[in-house]
């Protein structure tokens, strides 16, 4: 398969880190960061599930990297490198465009490809892509989903729902500005902000499957109840113009904002220093489960809280 | 999807390592081993490509772990934990049997599940599974595929071709003893032997895609030529009984023996201490490429050297 040989040759160019051993060895060999923990995450993308078949391949590569780096961001970690699992379906033009996009994304985030695997998938089947990201933990400890305290407020680092609208645009269901499509296809992990917030939060996660489901996971992991005020959920100007309602926004997923619990009053300022607007959208208390209010009035939970596709 | 909820609950039981954070966080947080490098590898298995659709799910789980641990073995590394990417196709009985097998395999190798992702795959499509294994490097340095020296002999740690025969048995093409089927479905990574050999080799890899192709990769990565004597390739008694010829054995793949270059004379004794029989099967010299001899007589290379499915 010369297509695969070409692909691997091109991937080698993305693997300058000595740990990658030029992608010529069975494994990557990474010097452990002195005195720091390592943060490891693995997320997959499946064609037709996590990206649309007509999504530009370079955008798929960006998203594959970005969703994993977003998990590192939620832990305040600094990316070191990634290992990729790539399913080949025989479309060499797609592969080439994917690698171009991967090169741009790796360069943007200053991350090296360290290793991985390319495998043949039966042709005509949905592409399956996996990525493992390795990062260096922050010096002061790694925020955990399990650390929220009763009395903490729940915060989010930026607008919710833009990616959901972007998906509707990509599907041709609505028309809307290109920035929303970009929010869906080219999410931006909040790496610097995550590092800055990490020492000030009691729990942190990223919003990947939907604000409600991700908030409920923090509450469940922390053994607490969480209440979210939909009226406080930040929406972008574009989303408001399109008439997005906060409940739809809060169940849409793919936002990749950071969601955190803290009693600190500094986080608004820290976010502002990173050109982000952190919004308090709820609070934790003794008990369990998720409750919704709208400007103080309790409202029913929707049938689906978001994407229940995995941990 | 309650099936998925059950699956994740069962996976949590396989993740006792504190680094896994109970699979409740976005990422695993691993204390870096003091003074040791980390070895990282990621291999995938695709249904119909790397395992047959009728393979028992528990055996697929074993193989997914074993092929990755074999890469660690080839680096002399000690496994710490794994992150798994698991494609759900809606067959909850299959998933349950897979998790049972994964539990057995993780226990056998004393490895913890640290994290990962479960994703929905379109139903009816070939399952795609990925695994990232993390190990602690040996104290004396990590053998590299690129380190072979002119004058080194090429060694292999045990019989070649059993797994290829096991595949033929699984396909119903031949009949043969159950041990050969097991060699295909339940490969045994040479972890202890890899650790013992690591200080004594100049290059090491595992035999995954076929003896010839893996030997050629060591030679190419080291900038050398390698000659293999087919008459010296070790075959099991069962393989001899079935009339396996050494060239077929050397192109069959999935053996997961260790293949290494060294000028040491100690390796035969070290292997024997690990109840393995290391065989010298060739040598490296200045030049490039792979040459075959049969008891000294040059023979032509076959059209296919093995599985060219990736790095």
From TrEMBL, chains A, B:
Span-the-membrane segments of this chain are none
Per UniProt, where does Mg(2+) 4 bind?
26, 41, 71
Identify the keywords attached in UniProt to this record, alphabetized: ATP-binding, Kinase, Magnesium, Metal-binding, Nucleotide-binding, Thiamine biosynthesis, Transferase
Output the superkingdom of the source species: Bacteria
Which SUPFAM superfamilies does this entry report, sorted A to Z? PurM C-terminal domain-like, PurM N-terminal domain-like
Summarize where Mg(2+) 5 binds, as residue positions. 209
Pathway noted in the entry: Cofactor biosynthesis; thiamine diphosphate biosynthesis; thiamine diphosphate from thiamine phosphate: step 1/1
- For the ligand (Mg(2+) 3), the binding residues are 26, 71, 206
Biological processes per GO annotation = thiamine biosynthetic process; thiamine diphosphate biosynthetic process
Q: Which residues form the PurM-like C-terminal domain?
A: 149-293
Q: In the UniProt record, does the keyword ATP-binding occur?
A: yes
Per its record, the protein catalyses: thiamine phosphate + ATP = thiamine diphosphate + ADP
Additional detail: Reaction mechanism of ThiL seems to utilize a direct, inline transfer of the gamma-phosphate of ATP to TMP rather than a phosphorylated enzyme intermediate.
What is the name listed in the Swiss-Prot or TrEMBL entry for this protein?
Thiamine-monophosphate kinase
- Organism of this sequence: Sphingomonas montanisoli
């Amino acid at each position: 398969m010369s297509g695969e040989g070409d692909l691997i040759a091109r991937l080698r160019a993305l693997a300058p880190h000595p740990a990658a051993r030029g992608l010529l060895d069975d494994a990557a060999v990474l010097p452990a960061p002195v005195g720091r923990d390592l943060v490891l995450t693995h997320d997959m993308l499946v064609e037709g599930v996590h990206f649309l078949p007509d999504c530009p391949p370079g955008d798929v590569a960006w998203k594959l990297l970005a969703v994993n780096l977003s998990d590192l961001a939620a832990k305040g970690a600094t990316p070191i490198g990634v290992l990729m699992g790539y399913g080949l379906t025989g479309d060499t033009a797609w592969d080439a465009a994917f690698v171009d996009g991967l090169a741009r994304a790796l360069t943007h985030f200053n991350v090296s490809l360290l290793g991985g695997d390319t495998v043949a998938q039966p042709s005509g089947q949905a592409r399956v892509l996996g990525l493992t990201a390795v990062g260096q933990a922050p010096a002061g400890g790694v925020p955990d989903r399990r650390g929220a305290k009763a009395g903490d407020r729940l915060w989010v680092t930026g607008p919710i729902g833009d990616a959901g609208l972007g998906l509707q645009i990509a599907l041709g269901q609505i028309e809307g500005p290109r920035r929303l499509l970009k929010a869906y296809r080219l999410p931006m992990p909040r790496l610097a902000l995550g590092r800055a917030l990490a020492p000030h939060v009691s729990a942190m996660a990223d919003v990947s499957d939907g604000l409600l489901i991700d908030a409920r996971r923090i509450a469940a992991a922390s053994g607490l109840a969480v209440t979210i005020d939909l009226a406080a959920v930040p929406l972008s100007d574009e989303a408001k113009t399109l008439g997005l309602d906060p409940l739809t926004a809060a169940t849409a997923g793919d936002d990749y904002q950071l969601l955190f619990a803290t009693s600190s009053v500094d986080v608004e300022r820290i976010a502002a220093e990173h050109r982000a607007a952190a919004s308090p959208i709820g609070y934790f208390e003794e008990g369990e489960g998720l409750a919704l209010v709208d400007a103080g009035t309790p409202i029913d939970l929707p049938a689906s809280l978001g994407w229940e596709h995995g941990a």
